[in-house]
Design goal:
It is built from 5 helices and 3 strands. With 140 residues, it is of the alpha+beta class. The protein has a 3-stranded antiparallel beta sheet.
Amino acid sequence: MLDDVYNNKIIELAANISHIGRLENPSKSVTKVSRLCGSKVTVDILLSNNIVIDFAHEVKACALGQASSSIMAKNIIGSSIEELAIVSKQMSKMLRENGPAPKGKWAELGYLEPVKDYKSRHSSTMLTFEAVCEAIQNDD
């Protein structure tokens, strides 16, 4: 049931998003919009030596998109671009291939595991990861 997806932890995460807004001078900025549901995420990242040293985002998404963005915001500063690419792949595999949830500081992403049974919800859940991955891969 969708009640499993929209559990109390997801609602709590969605209600407590940090790093809201925009950075004044980001290294990279990316906006992603889900064609399926209209969710929109803009991320600003400041990189130094392939490590995220500052982050801000604007999130206009459902509770699932907000929850994944909330977890991203909690953990991204101090993360390497390699780590972010890995956690994004882990999230995609968790949702699309029944893979395991990310571990360590990203373990809260496991609360989004029930989304795997609702393909129409994958897009909003993955939006923040897609935006971050695009930002760290751009060579502006």
